[in-house]
Amino acid sequence: MDFESKGMLKDRSVAIRETLFHGPYYQRHLVGVPRLLDVQVGRVVCESNDAVFRTKLQELTRVFNVGRYLDTIVRTEAGWKFASRLCIQAVYPRQRADSELDHLSCLKFNPLKEPVAMVEGMNLPRFSAVRDAFASTFDDAWEQGAAVAVYLDGEPVVDLWGGHRDLARTQPWQRDTLANVWSCSKGVAATAVAMLVERGTLDYDAPLATYWPEFAANGKAAITLDQVLSHRAGLDGVQVDMALPDLYAGTPFTDALAAMAPLWQPGSRCVYHPVTFGHLLGEVVRRVDGRSLGRFIADEIAAPLGLSFFVGLPREHDHRAAEMSGDDAIYASHVEGLKSPYPFSFRNPELFAQTPNARAWRAAEIPAANGHSDARSLARMYGALARGGAIDGVRLITPAGIGRAARERFRGVDACSLGATVFAAGYRVDSVGFGPSVGPGNFGHTGWGGSVAFADPTHHLGFAFVTSRLLAFPDGIDPRRQRLLQAVYASL
């Protein structure tokens, strides 16, 4: 069976279960102390302290081209013990397995002599736990390349990066490396709109057709800017065929949005608008300001704050962009979405984890999904918003403007994903992605596969984590950012 052509970890998992857990190895090595720790869709994990079994795991890693093999020293009640682990996907059981092995306190070393990720950058001594947590995401084979940053009371207290920016793992992640942060871009776009609202150029309650008359076609005259920002506009996708070049060009996509009828009654529910969110806002900004949304962000947010954030990456910065990748499990929501009553969120065009590796994607303006940033820049912007809109003498917006933007618009269940959702004017609020310790009034945005950035006004804190490797987990909680956030808040 050609597992690579099937392209689904589920199929590989089934094959490995059949190969490994039936026959002599099953009875000899998986009954008793060595246990099957976790078998779920998209992942198989096992551990053993038997040398022959370790050899079998190494062979399976090579034959099935899955994940990577790790030798492990684990702590047990009887002391430290040698074990093995086959990782098809990162291991983070939803609850601790019934095993004598302590999976939460492992020291790992690599017998295959793969490149070891070095964590670089700075952190104040009181935040040393954040460095340790960041390093552990590489030790546990979750990470390709990433960065994390924290601003507290307007000052940088964590600025770390590590891993590699290329898929071949030959180029170290540098201080200026940029990741495609996917929907974290929406939080920056929402900030731009909030600034224009404060200036009186836009009005949250105004119909989009006030600024974009053509948009009124086919029953859309009453759709407001607020409904777009809170994903209640009934325009979560386009019905006409749309290829990537059409998305990159922008105009075919916005023309299709202007001409179409709503996919469902605007205001009646919330369905996440993955891509259309940015083009709807971008066209409105262009019409009232004269600049594209990417240009507005560059001039009014990035330049004043000294940020490396781009919607539309200039060619001269292309060498800074990390190569993106992802595991097969990240497409599970797409598969389910295509079967749902809201399939247009996931097609026209279809996007993949590696789509941002094309120069055409990087150069285009896709304000909902193709922001390129380091963690430092997002943390600095949210650090400013967390303390009333100003940092180092530069004010983006007043506290009143932030209050209007961060006010809750929708709280309930996303009709497509069926997940609990809270939206302000373009920001996620009270998101599980912000961790369990975040203060009230928090706002920001998560990105597909792991990246996250937000403001915590209670603690005057801005946080950002960006990654080039997209992962998905059964409970929807990314352990990489959870570890980091737990360490950050424990250090306050």
Describe this protein's structure.
The chain has 492 residues and is α+β, with helices and mostly antiparallel strands. It has two domains: 3-109, no CATH class; 179-491, DD-peptidase/beta-lactamase superfamily (Beta-lactamase). Helices cover 32% and strands 20% of the residues. The chain has helices at residues 3-6, 9-20, 24-29, 51-64, 128-139, 184-198, 225-229, 244-249, 251-259, 276-289, 293-305, 332-339, 359-363, 375-386, 399-406, 479-491, and strands spanning 36-40, 43-48, 68-76, 79-87, 106-109, 119-123, 145-152, 155-163, 179-180, 309-311, 325-326, 371-373, 390-391, 394-395, 410-413, 420-423, 428-429, 443-446, 452-456, 461-467, 469-470. Strand 19 (452-456) and strand 20 form a beta hairpin. Residues 1-54 and 61-116 have low confidence and may be disordered.
How would you sum up this structure in a few lines?
It is globular and about 60 Å long. A seven-stranded antiparallel β-sheet has the order 6-8-7-20-19-18-17, sandwiched between helices. Strands 1-2-4-3-5 form a five-stranded antiparallel β-sheet, with helices on one face.
Output the keywords.
disordered N terminus, 5-stranded antiparallel sheet, alpha+beta, 492 residues, globular, single chain, Beta-lactamase, 2 domains
What topology emerges from the helices and strands here?
Blueprint: H1 3-6, H2 9-20, H3 24-29, E1 36-40, E2 43-48, H4 51-64, E3 68-76, E4 79-87, E5 106-109, E6 119-123, H5 128-139, E7 145-152, E8 155-163, E9 179-180, H6 184-198, H7 225-229, H8 244-249, H9 251-259, H10 276-289, H11 293-305, E10 309-311, E11 325-326, H12 332-339, H13 359-363, E12 371-373, H14 375-386, E13 390-391, E14 394-395, H15 399-406, E15 410-413, E16 420-423, E17 428-429, E18 443-446, E19 452-456, E20 461-467, E21 469-470, H16 479-491
Parallel strand pairs: 11-21
Antiparallel strand pairs: 1-2, 2-4, 3-4, 3-5, 6-8, 7-8, 7-20, 9-12, 10-12, 13-14, 15-16, 17-18, 18-19, 19-20
